[in-house]
Design goal:
alpha/beta; Spore Coat Polysaccharide Biosynthesis Protein SpsA, Chain A; seven-stranded mixed beta sheet; four-stranded mixed beta sheet; 7 helices; 39% helix; 21% strand
């Protein structure tokens, strides 16, 4: 029988972890990689069958812990899932079918992003394909923040249908909004540092041009306004984030006398 391992990375996810794990009952094992949570995440997770818990240093973002979790998994197939995501039964049935048929090695899955209980359909938020289901040995994650995995083998892309989508619940209330903004600032620091280390330098003009490009693509090309005020707010966060990355990168360049 083909074995499926679900890998879940967590950091202070007590409000999400139970629902996430409840959607993974189809998996043969669940690998929880916790980045030193100081809430009840691990305690709540221990009530779940088939779970194996490991710890990884709190480095500030998830990518370095991805490969660690994959290495701990013993399944033929690996499913990567975050604590604020859910796998509906229609998708889990499809993943079991794919794993049993050996039709591919790597599966791209659409993701349904839900903000304040509203499905975001524009501004790049749908179909938001993710490489999350694959045979062990066919994926390796780059440790840089927001990096895409290295993929080999036969690839399959699931149809852009709601029944085959990962459900991603985020920004549920005002507290989430504040936490997300703080997280974005932290991520901008990390991304700027990674870019500087790769010698991907920026220019002062990019403080204007890069957010403008992001604005044009999200608001006009991808019609973010069709998601209403919530859609505009969400995409404005991403536009500001792009400004922050180049601002922080420019500061690093000046601090280190790089032009």
């Amino acid at each position: 029988m083909t074995k499926i391992s679900a890998v879940v990375n967590t950091l202070n996810e007590e409000k999400n972890i139970v629902e996430c794990l409840s959607s993974l009952t189809f998996a043969d094992e669940i690998i929880l990689v916790d980045m030193m949570s100081d809430d009840r995440t691990v305690e709540l997770a221990k009530n779940t069958d088939k779970i194996k818990t490991y710890y990884y240093p709190r480095v500030g973002y998830v990518e370095p812990a991805r490969n660690f979790g994959i290495d701990k998994a013993t399944g033929d197939w690996i499913l990567i899932i975050d604590a604020d995501e859910r796998i509906p039964k229609t998708l889990s049935d499809k993943l079991i079918e794919i794993a049993s048929s050996d039709a591919a090695d790597v599966i791209k899955i659409p993701r349904k992003n839900i903000m304040f209980n509203k499905w975001m359909r524009y501004g790049f938020w749908w179909t938001n394909y993710q490489v999350r289901f694959f045979k062990k040995g066919f994926i390796k994650w780059d440790p840089d923040i927001h990096s895409q995995p290295e993929v080999s083998g036969r690839k399959m892309k699931l149809p852009a249908e709601e029944r085959y989508a990962i459900e991603h619940y985020f920004l549920k209330d005002r507290k989430d909004r504040r936490e997300w903004w703080m997280k974005m600032q932290k991520y901008a620091d990390i991304e700027a540092k990674n870019m500087f280390e790769r010698k991907e330098y920026t220019k002062p003009l990019n403080l204007f041009l890069m957010p403008l490009k992001e604005f044009y693509e999200r608001i006009f090309e991808e019609k973010a306004y069709l998601d209403g005020l919530i859609g505009l707010e969400l995409n404005m966060y991403k536009i500001i984030y792009r400004y922050l990355v180049h601002y922080k990168l420019l500061r690093l360049q000046r601090k280190n006398d790089v032009t």
